[in-house]
Amino acid sequence: MENLDRLNKIVSEKSNWIEEAKQRQDNKAWLKHSQKIAIKILKTLRENKNNKTGISSQVQLAEILGVKPQYVNKLVKGKENLTLETISKIEVALNIKLISDNKVAIKEIVRKEYIVKKEYVCIPVQHFYEKEEPIMYALGA
Amino acid sequence: MFVVEINKNSLYAIKYDDEHDEFENNEFEEDNSPKDEFRRLFNNWSDIEYLDAFFEKHQSDLQKEFYNYISIEDAIQQTIDEADNLEQKLISISENGKTDNSENLDNLFKPLNNREQSVYPIPDYQENKVYGDEHKSWIRIYAIRIEKNVFIVTGGAIKLVKKMSEREHLKNELIKLDKVKEFLISEGIIDNDGIVEYLELR
User: Fold this and answer.
1) Which of A57, A101, A132, B150 has its CA 20 to 30 A from that of A48?
2) Which CB contacts under 8 angstroms, 24+ apart, belong to A94-99?
3) Contact B39 A7 (CB under 8 A)
C-alpha cells in the first residue's frame, strides 16, 4: 500500500483515454463504415503510387475533391462521418466503389426466400434456377 | 516522464517527454500534445492511416504461413477488431474492477518471459504480458506491476515476430520498460532489491 500511496502522490494528471474509448464505443456503428472506406482509399492511393497512375497522395485527392488536406487526412484515419455526397465524389475521383451495389444484395435475399417458398409447395429448387423470371415478379418489377 | 492515472489505485500509464513513433501523423489533430502511452496506443490502433503505414513497412512479416499471408487491408481490420475487444474489456475493468467474465488486471497481464536474456538481459526481474481472446493476437501492452492489481503501462506495440529483439520498435519497448523501472526506483515507488515484474497484455 505504501508503494501505491507514493505512486498516487506523483500522478500528474488523469488520462483522457476513458472518454475517448467511450466515444469510440458509442460511435462504433458508423466508425466501422468510416474505417472500411479509409482502408479502401489508402489501398487505392498506394496502388496508384506503385503503378504511377491516377491520384496517389492525400494532397492530390484533396485538390480533386476541392477540400482541405486536413479533411482528407481525417478521412484516411477512418474518423470522419462522411456524407453520401462525399462518398460519391471519392468514388468518381479514385474510380472505385465504396458502397456495394444493393441491387445484387436484394436479389440474393429474394432468391433465398423464393427457394424456401418453392420447397414449401414441393417444387424442386432446380426448377427455380431454370426459370429466372419469377425472381422479377417477386421483386415486384 | 510523468505518471498519468487511468483508473485510480489500479491502472496508470507513463507519459514520455519525447516519445516518437514514425507512423504517427498528428499534424492536423486539434490536440497534438504528447499523449500518455495508454491513450496513444488505442488512438493508433483505431487510426487507419497509422495502421496502413505500419503494415506497409512490416508487410514481409505478414507474408508467412503463420498469418495465412494476410493482406495489409485484412491486417488493419484485424488490428482494429483486436484493439476494440481489448478496449471494451479494459473499460469494463475500469468501471467495475472486472469484466463480466470476472477478468481483472491481475489475470489479464501475463509475465513477459520469452525475452532473450542474451540480447537484453534483465536479471532478477520477471516480465509479464496480457493476452486477449484471439489466438494469433498481435497487439501488446507492456506494463510494470507495482503491487497486486496495480500496473503502470510503459508502452505497447504490434508484434508480428516471435522475439522482441527481432524488430527495432519492439526493442524500444524493452528499453522503455527499463527506463520506467529506473524512474520508479528513483521515486521510491518500487524497491531496488525487490522483484520487478514486467508484464504484457494482449
Assistant:
1) A101
2) A94/A41, A94/A44, A94/A45, A94/A48, A94/A54, A94/A55, A94/A61, A95/A54, A96/A40, A96/A41, A96/A44, A98/A37, A98/A40
3) no
